[in-house]
Specification:
Rossmann fold; 20 strands; 2 domains; alpha+beta; OB fold (Dihydrolipoamide Acetyltransferase, E2P); 37% strand; five-stranded antiparallel β-sheet; 8 helices
């Protein structure tokens, strides 16, 4: 399989980066560091600035303030910018953007046509993505997943030091999407390239990235490993965005919070006092016999189910692998987690 030299791995650093469209701010003082060889997922709702951030890194959109550095080289600043073709950046778009009139091999070789041994290089990357036997096919004869692998091969062919992926799996059906992102991640880990991928899908961001940067309204709300974001979000918005969340009122004393589930131990990072919003994930709860709540709905997912119920005036979700309860049953809820995050109620 193909490999890149270790010096081809390049860190990406953004310092105070701001950008705008038609005078309106889109990115606001972004600080972000992506280590060489790291896979970073940019996660956020539509319109938060994810794709614009990808475009300024690629050099397709100017910065109004701040700098972008590849390694120790400044490639974007208000005073000047390195042209996209000189940044050694590869891009894969949502629709693949393949040339329909060219074969698979011709698409992959399009950006390296002036290099020696083009045929060997094309064969190398097609073998890497598992499409060596489809070199003579046209894109229209390929499945959606195969087309995206061709797009990946074309992006890797010039040996970029950074790869940018813009919603690369969103056009695929759910089963194929999961399978392809696993295959693509395996390939990129093997190659060792620095990767930044954009998605609005939390499952995709968490399973694909070594770390995840959550964006909101043109700023980075939080950066961390998937488990850090899920277990220790910075605020209520991040808590809600990165997974199912029960945010209930409570009163904290620095060590525990009194809630409708009883006293719950606080994470060390949530050592607050006073009125609080307490984050309880659905899997931290269990249904037990009782009469305080009525089950209003059940969503069955095969491996588990989400039970929705009303408890103490709050709408609560409980995730369990199996249960003898059904819609309309009266139940109680028990906390089975180890600790919880909490945020000041004023925030």
């Amino acid at each position: 399989m193909m490999s890149l030299a270790s010096d081809a791995r390049t860190a990406v650093t953004l310092r105070g980066v701001s950008a705008a469209y038609d005078g309106g701010p889109v990115l606001r003082e972004i600080d972000l560091h992506v280590a060489a060889g790291e896979i970073l997922s940019l996660l956020g709702p539509s319109g938060c600035g994810k794709t614009t951030l990808l475009r300024v890194i690629a050099g397709l959109h100017p910065v109004e303030a701040g700098t972008i550095e590849f390694g120790d080289r400044i490639v974007s600043s208000p005073g000047g910018s390195v042209a996209p073709e000189h940044r050694r950046v590869g891009m894969v778009f949502q629709d693949g953007a393949l040339f329909p009139h060219l074969t698979v091999a011709e698409n992959v070789g399009f950006g390296i046509s002036r290099e020696p041994n083009v045929g060997a290089r094309v064969g190398e990357v097609l073998d890497l993505v598992g499409l060596a036997d489809l070199a003579d096919r046209r894109p229209a004869t390929l499945s959606g997943g195969q087309q995206q692998r061709v797009a990946l091969a074309r992006a890797l062919a010039p040996r970029p030091s950074i790869l940018l992926l813009d919603e690369p799996f969103s056009a695929l059906d759910s089963g194929l999407r999961v399978q392809l992102r696993r295959e693509v991640r395996r390939i990129l880990v093997h190659v060792g390239i620095t990767v930044i991928t954009v998605t609005h899908d939390q499952d995709e961001a968490f399973s694909f990235g070594d770390r995840v940067a959550v964006m909101r309204d043109g700023v980075i709300a939080q950066v961390g490993r998937p488990d850090e974001l899920y277990e220790r979000p910075n605020d209520c918005w991040v808590a809600n965005f990165v997974g199912d969340a029960n945010l209930v009122r409570g009163t904290a004393n620095g060590r525990a919070a009194t809630t409708l589930f009883g006293p719950l131990p606080l994470d060390p990072g949530s050592a607050i006092t006073g009125d609080a919003w307490v984050l309880v994930r659905p899997e931290q709860l269990r249904l037990v016999a009782g009469s305080r709540a009525i089950i209003e709905a059940v969503e069955y997912f095969g491996h588990d189910a989400i039970y929705s119920l009303s408890l103490g005036g709050e709408r609560i979700e409980v995730r369990v692998a199996g249960s003898d309860f059904d819609v309309g049953d009266r139940v109680d809820v028990a906390f089975v987690g180890s600790s919880v995050a909490a945020f000041p109620a004023a925030g």
